[in-house]
Amino acid sequence: MAKSNESHTEAEQERIDAVNRYQRGERSSKICKSLGRSRVWLRKWIRRYDNFEKSSNKEWFRDESRAPKNVHRKTDSKVEQLIINVRKSLMEGKTEDTKYRCIGADEIQFRMHELGYSEDETPSMATIKRIIKRNGM
Q1: Kindly report the CA angle at 129 between 73 and 77, in degrees rounded to 5?
Q2: Is the pLDDT at 84 greater than 80, yes or no?
Q3: CA atoms within 13 A on the CB side of 134
Q4: CA nearest 104: which of 77, 75, 85, 132?
Q5: pLDDT in tens, 117-131
Q6: Dihedrals φ, ψ of 119, to 5°?
Q7: Would the N or C end of the chain have less CB density within 10 A of its end CB?
Q8: What are phi and psi of 73, to 5 degrees?
Q9: Torsion angle defined by CA atoms of residues 2, 4, 7 and 8, in that order, rounded to the nearest 10 degrees
């Protein structure tokens, strides 16, 4: 049986009570009707509880984050580091080649093309600007 505790929100307590009622043998349609919930909702929490018994997750009744688990189109860290290094070298301006050059995103993009990066491998100007800003340059 799912343990009931006073430190839960109303929604969490409702989930715990619904699963307890189901485990005592009460029909799911009756539980759902009395709570004003769908059978899908009840099955979700029963499934969560069943998975909880198999794992060590003691808070099966809590809402899970809906935030993405990973960033879909994050710039590769190697490319990001290259952009930072190119920006630093342009800012230093030690060589004749970089002495009088601009240091903006368009110049970094141009330098990446010079280094052999294709059009597809080179980030957009907006992405380069965001990387520069994020790194405080």
Answers
A1: 45
A2: yes
A3: 11
A4: 132
A5: 898 889 999 999 999
A6: -60, -40
A7: N
A8: -120, 45
A9: 60
Second-level CATH architecture of 1-65: Orthogonal Bundle (1.10)
Distance of CA 6 to the CA centre of its chain: 31
Place of tokens 């003691």: 58
Report the distance separating Cα 132 and Cα 120, nearest Å: 20
CA distance 21 to 70: 37
- Per-domain residue ranges for the chain? 1-65, 77-134
**Directed axis angle between helix 105-114 and helix 125-134, to 10°?**
110
Q: Is the entire prediction scored with pTM above 0.70?
A: no
**DSSP symbol at 69:** S
